[in-house]
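Form 7-S
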Amino acid sequence: MRDGENQVFRLPGKIIVRINKPGQDQVAHREVFLGRWLNDNGVQAIEPLAVSQPVIAADHPVTFWHELPPRRPGTPQQVAQALKRLHALPVPDELARHSLAPFVRLYERITGALWLRDTDRDWLLDQLTSLRDQWADRPAGMADAVIHGDAWAGNVVDVEGQGVTLMDLERCTVGPPEWDLTSTACRLTSYGTLSAALYSEYCEAYGLDVTNWSGFDLFRDTRELRVTCFAAYLAQGRTELRENAQLRVDSLRGRNGPRPWHWEPID
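Output:
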């Protein structure tokens, strides 16, 4: 079904199996815990099978989940409402020691994208250093909460007969709620895939417009760097993605004019 950050397969019996990379044992444990804890606390999420997991196979943590019925991406309003419920939850003890790591694996993705020109790779590394430095002194915002971490409409879905459901809990952790809100804001400001009217509905449903916050530019720039590095990383082994990834690099470097840019999504 998917070969990106992890590999995802459909098994007989409406079971989904996720295969994480070696060394991701704790991430897999946390995903399983969150799948159970969220459903027990009034926030609908993908549900792990009631078996002892993860299973370690050839150093890969493997987890098993109930397959969702047919679904569609959540509307901006549904995404906002789901995030508002999520951010209102008390932080469980099992999650308290985990915190948002917005720059995880970015250095490895940049240096591993050997197909990039040296000048582009050097620029991305400089941008990574700059954003890390700014993050350490970022403006104050809302109190840290349980956040999804990757809250775009494909991960907050409207499931047939079931309602809005959170998927892909790998990045779910403790951190600033503004990080979740920036995902949808970037659809308006960075990529032009969301109208101002729908974004207004999103802000009204949550009760906040994150673009008015003094730290938004930093969060936006970090989001843009993350999705660009992911594309560059995938394009190392999938040459058909290199034009898309190069477009993202060129946009960040100012070669394609001001935002919003128009990038094709990567499957």
